[in-house]
Amino acid sequence: MVSSTLITTNKEPIATYRSYQEAQKTVDFLSDHGFPVKGTLIVGVGLRSIEQVVARMTYLRAAGWGALSGAWFGLLIGLFFGIFTNTAMSLIAVVFWGLLWGAVAGAIFGLIAHAVQGGHRDFVSEAGLVADKYEVLVESDHAAKAHELLGRTPH
154: Cβ–Cβ under 8 A, 6 or more apart, which residues? Predict the structure, then answer.
C-alpha cells in the first residue's frame, strides 16, 4: 500500500487519464524514450466499489460449485494418499475415489450452505474497484523532462 505522504512528498502529476490503459501507455512511452520511470506512480483517484451481479444462486448452482470445489480438495487428498500406493492402478483408483467423494461432500456442503442463508444473498457477483480518473506522478526532479517528452506524444 502506498501512503499519501509518499505520493505528495516528492511526486508531481504530469498527466491525467480516464482509463488505466491510457496512463499505462504514457508510462510505457516515457520508458521507451529513456525516462527514469523508477518510482513513477499511476494513482487511481475517486475510487468506487462496484459489484456486478452475474447470476442467480440456485440450489443446483450451489451444489455444482460445491461439487467443483470439493472435487479439487478430493483430488489433492487422493494425490496425497496416492503417493503411498504400490502400483499405478492403485494410484489411479485412490485419486479417482478422492475426486468422487470430494465432489459428493462438496455438493452436500454447498447445498447446506445455500439453505442456511435462508434466501439472503441469492445471487453471484464479482466485486472490484474502479477509479474516476488515473494520474501519472513522477519524481519532481524529472517532471520537466516528462512534460517535454509528452509534448511529442499524439494525444
Answer: none
Cα–Cα dist 136/41, whole Å? 6
Residue 59 CA neighbour count, 13 Å, CB half: 6
Q: Which helix (H) or strand (E) holds 119?
A: none
Asked whether 81 and 32 are in contact (CB, 8 A), the reply is: no
Question: Residue 121 region, left (φ>0) first, then alpha (ψ -120 to 50), else beta?
Answer: left
For 67-112, how does the pLDDT look when each residue is reduced to its tens digit (9 = 90+)?
999 999 999 999 999 999 999 999 999 999 999 999 999 999 999 9
Contact 106, 67 (CB under 8 A): yes
Q: What is the C-alpha end-to-end distance of the chain, expressed in Å?
A: 30
